[in-house]
Amino acid sequence: MSTASTPVEIEYPESDGQPMGETDLHRNWMMRLIELLQHRYHNQQVYVSGDLLVYYEEGTPHKFVVPDAFVVQNCDPGERRTYKIWEEPAPPQVVFEVTSRSSKREDTIHKPRTYAQIGVREYFVYDPTQDYLDPPLRGYRLAGDEHVPIEPDANGTLHCEELDLMLNLDGLGLVLRDGSTGDRLLLKWEAEQAAKEAEKQAYAAEHQARLDAEAEVDRLREQLRQSGQDV
Questions:
Q1: 46, 77, 127, 214: least CB-packed within 10 angstroms?
Q2: Is the peptide bond between 128 and the residue preceding it cis, with omega within 30 degrees of 0?
Q3: Model pLDDT for residues 145-175, shown as the tens digit of each residue
Q4: 187 in Cβ contact with 35 (< 8 Å)
């Protein structure tokens, strides 16, 4: 009679069972961050997600964290139901949290400890209401086994080194810019709209230049006519 035991399959739930319980503003900013980053890394080997259970200890399904938005570079961008660190090439390199009254303590105390433990290299917290964080945009970079604050520049801009992004506030809004070009990150539809507007302006400029050139030719002809020269 065999005494070999059958391995027990461990279940990793796809939900933590807790309601979102956040405002429209919080949810909209979370989705905007995810979509901005997904558009930036479209067709690249970069996985962008958010509001997804990230399991960080194999065999221990209660060891998880749920970032609002995160990025993993050099990683298959395909869809996942959960993110198990031991099955992936790396933990998230960068995490973004949109904090609120209900999540402030979690975002500023508990989650940072977990992110440091699993090796998240940079971590950013944003308060879109400017009611719960002062300053409302903060950044942290892993140094040893803990995160230390990222010092903003004179304009209050934070540099995300891992993604070469510049983060700052424009009014109440969070703006992400490419660190090399300075271009503002846009959603797909925003980028398409901006491209159409640029094309429209280029056409208008070309048309005006043609009108100006024709007007100059007419002016020169009139000047020659008045001087008695045949044109």
A1: 214
A2: no
A3: 999 999 999 999 999 999 999 999 997 699 9
A4: yes
